[in-house]
Amino acid sequence: MSTQPLPLDGITVVSVEQAVAAPFATRQLADLGARVVKVERPDGGDFARGYDTAARGLASHFVWCNRGKESVAVDLKDPRGRELVGRLVADADVFVQNLAHGAAARLGLDAATLCAAHPRLVAVDVSGYGPDGPYAHRRAYDMLVQCETGLVSVTGTPEQPVKSGVPAADIAAGMYAYAGVLAALVRRGTTGRGGPVEVSLFDALAEWMGHPLHHGAHGGTAPARTGLAHAVIAPYDAYPTADGSPVLLSVQNDREWRRLAERVLGRPELADDPAFATNAARVAGRAATDAAVAAALGALPAEEAVRRLDAAGIACARLNSVAELVRHPQLAARDRWRPVDSPAGPLPSLLPPVVFPDAPEAPMGRVPALGEHTDAVLAALGVPAAELARLRTSGVIA
What we know:
Helices cover 39% and strands 13% of the residues.
């Protein structure tokens, strides 16, 4: 039985957001119980709404990043629209924006301006490359930032660099913005003051490059692209099985190599063979190491290979597709799926990774239609119905 509220129950967030980074951050806040008011353009809203139609006619990115929010469609270029959003911000605890470089400042919605006017407000500027420097003005789409930070240079095969299959720069920035909000709220609890928070996609993903960055900066060369293999550990790769389904395994130390050799490969002599006995030797002779593992696993069906590896205490995994993730037995056993309402009807979605066993479950609120909450939110500010009608007729709201 729950004994405490969700951590952000009673916190109000206003966000002028688009694409992935800021929406992903504010969705985490909604999952923790915050009320999140999403301010969108009347003419189409967050452009991520139009990325695709894969989720029963809705965009998959939008469904992922925007459940549990209230959509208010307001034209920020109109002074009347800015005045309405200003009133929303005056009652908020947190404000988040990821508009193009300079746009928030022109609208008076940058963190510095808002925090000067509202000392208890936590205001977050999410940008591509930060507020200054020679790259500040550049557009910073996820793939471009993956390239600029060098992530693409260490991802892929020796022959072909590839970008991450998920928007890594957006996710990194979103998670740091989320963490920054939580930290700033804790500080406000002790000092009584909020304050500005800055997060850039570039800084966030550069931080995630920590291992290759330090390897290259201090060792002289960056790790090579190795596909599913590991640059400095062997065996560590995907290996074919008798039924064609690859199995991945990772041996982290020489004790594990001994167990693998004796209990899975059926070649106990390899445990003491100088050509295989140490990780350095196995990496130096990677081709022979991989050949020995592939020969053994290639004679076994994938399920039997995984069973033997598990029994020997060797870390292993199946190379799952997205469809197999959807059907994954671990998600089913832990009851991780919930229906989320949307304009297209209920959509199955995963519960958030952070769980509070002594609090209610994450609300998993509705994915909003554009402007679905405009009238209710503005009416709560005291805007009369007749004024709402005039604003809608003139295109200031939708």
